Amino acid sequence: MRNLGIALAALAAWLIGWAPPALAHAVAEGDKGYIQEVSGVLLLPFMYLGAKHMVTGYDHILFLLGVIFFLYRMKHIAIYVSLFALGHSATMLLGVYFDFGINSYLIDAIIGGSIVYKALDNLGAFQRWFGVQPDTKLATLVFGLFHGFGLASKIIDYDIAPDGLLPNLLAFNVGVEVGQLLALAAILIVMGFWRRTPSFLHHAYTANVVMMTAGFVLVGYQLTGYFMS
Fold first, then answer.
1. Is the pLDDT of residue 26 over 60?
2. In the chain, at which residue ranges do the beta strands (DSSP E only) sit?
3. Rounded Cα–Cα distance for residues 205 and 89 (Å)
4. How far apart are CA 158 and CA 33, in angstroms?
5. Short-list 186, 184, 179, CA closest to 47
6. Which one of 26, 29, 36, 58 counts the least CB within 10 Å of its CB?
7. pLDDT score recorded for residue 6
8. Nearest CA to 65 among 221, 222, 202, 212?
């Protein structure tokens, strides 16, 4: 497990270079067509779509990785993940139900910024630069709100049928939380092995720098799309 930290950094680099930035909060084309064509209450399909979105949404995964990076106790992990889920769920449900969205490029740029923020926080940059430590719980909740708006903006673009809208949205959100738990479980398993190695602290710095770089790439890509569109 000596090189596990390097492997994680390489994985983040792969996400930068190969994962299409447009997929940060997008819904796959096949799923888009399904959402546009169906109507009525379809709980299981929307739960599946929600779970699929979370486990394939690399911006979510990178942010979650940053949030739990230096958390060792399960009760602390549960608090932070619950705050993120609360924020994400609230704005996704309310945004779609009340047809309130934010420009997709701008909201995804903010989401990229959340990854940069968390990586800098993990590196202790705010304490060194400003002599203060931001409220990490509040920041996790606030960025959760933005992550939810990101998905809401995409769903609104796909004109989901009003028939069965609320039950389907609730099912979608349940699926998102199931997917989040699955992604979190995988992250915790890998992190658990990595933390037992003597190289953890050394490679933790590298991993957070790579994660921060991924956030900057996402911000740049989305702002470029905004100004070019």
1. no
2. none
3. 31
4. 8
5. 179
6. 29
7. 53
8. 212
Contacts of residue 175, Cβ cutoff 8 Å, sequence gap at least 6: 46, 47, 48, 49, 50, 51, 52, 53, 54
Tens digits of residue pLDDT in 146-162: 989 988 887 887 778 88
pTM: 0.84
The average confidence (pLDDT) of the chain is: 84
- The closest of 58, 48, 76 to 188, measured between CA atoms, is 76
In degrees rounded to 5, what are phi and psi of residue 69?
A: -55, -45
28: phi then psi, degrees, rounded to nearest 5? -55, 150
The residues near 153 (Cβ < 8 Å, ≥ 6 apart) are: 25, 95, 101, 102, 103, 104, 107
- Local structure of 133: helix, strand or coil: coil
DSSP letters spanning 39-60: -S--HHHHHHHHHHHHHH-HHH
3-state secondary structure of 99: coil
| pLDDT at position 15 over 60 | no
Q: What's the chain's length in residues?
A: 229
Segment 126-146, tens digit of pLDDT: 989 988 889 999 999 999 999
How many Å apart are CA 174 and CA 160, to the nearest integer? 17
CA distance 142 to 113: 12
Could you tell me the two tokens for 202?
């050394």
Which residues, 6+ apart, have CB-to-CB distance to 18 below 8 Å?
A: none
